[in-house]
Predict the 3D structure of the following.
Amino acid sequence: MKNYIHFFIIAPLIWLAACNKKADQIKSFIPGTYTNFAKGAYAQANDTLVITLVKDNTFLITRNTTYQAIREGSLLPKHRQVKLLNAIYDSQNQVLDETTNGRIIKFDPGKRLLKVNQAVYKKIN
């Protein structure tokens, strides 16, 4: 009986420690530079996200986008845009909650990927 009591006390603690370790691995993976290239019939875009830890669970995302329209098979001049976005790390769900637009950002450290909506970004550093 005594062993069962120890099991019911220790097992949840081990489970919590394992969950926290995985959350910490995701959080430590987040800072860095991520890139995405998308091309369609009418435009192409290069997107770069630079994510930095500000404090505790708060992150700053600098989004640099270069966009080119395609007309009659030719690329038009480039347009550049820079946006600063804030995000909070949700340790329970292991995602970044981008507070400006309400997007949820997911990470796959094993594949070195960031996913937001349908877009997939590759971590380059």
Observations:
- Residues 2-123 form one domain.
- Confidence is low (pLDDT under 50) at residues 13-20.
- DSSP finds one helix and nine strands in the chain.
- The first helix runs from residue 2 to 29.
